[in-house]
Design goal:
Strand order of the largest sheet: 1-2-3
Strand content: 5-15%
Radius of gyration: 16 Å
Distance between the termini: 39 Å
Largest sheet: 3 strands, antiparallel
Order of helices and strands: HHEEE
Number of domains: 2
Number of helices: 2
Shape: elongated
Number of strands: 3
């Protein structure tokens, strides 16, 4: 993120009202990162499994398949297999 921020945040602020409404000069960096898959977050009522898909940061087009990059993290419901 340090490579792109805060310039990208400030660029988005000029174009998007929802970002402007936050009145922030910069975006907060992630508080938690992971590389081991699955990474499981849970509390007393729910569980979310995050899958690490690697560090493929190449730009993707609409026809190139899954948008797997450093900024995407799919959240999967927990497995119900017994």
């Amino acid at each position: 993120m340090d490579r792109y921020e805060p310039a990208r945040w400030q660029s988005a602020e000029a174009k998007r009202a929802d970002v402007r409404d936050l009145h922030e000069d910069n975006v907060q960096r992630p508080q938690k990162t992971f590389r081991k898959s699955p990474f499981i977050l849970k509390d007393s009522t729910r569980e979310v499994d995050f899958l690490f898909l690697g560090w493929d940061t190449r730009p993707r087009t609409a026809t190139s398949g899954c948008p797997k990059n450093a900024s995407s993290a799919p959240a999967m419901p927990p497995s119900t297999a017994a």
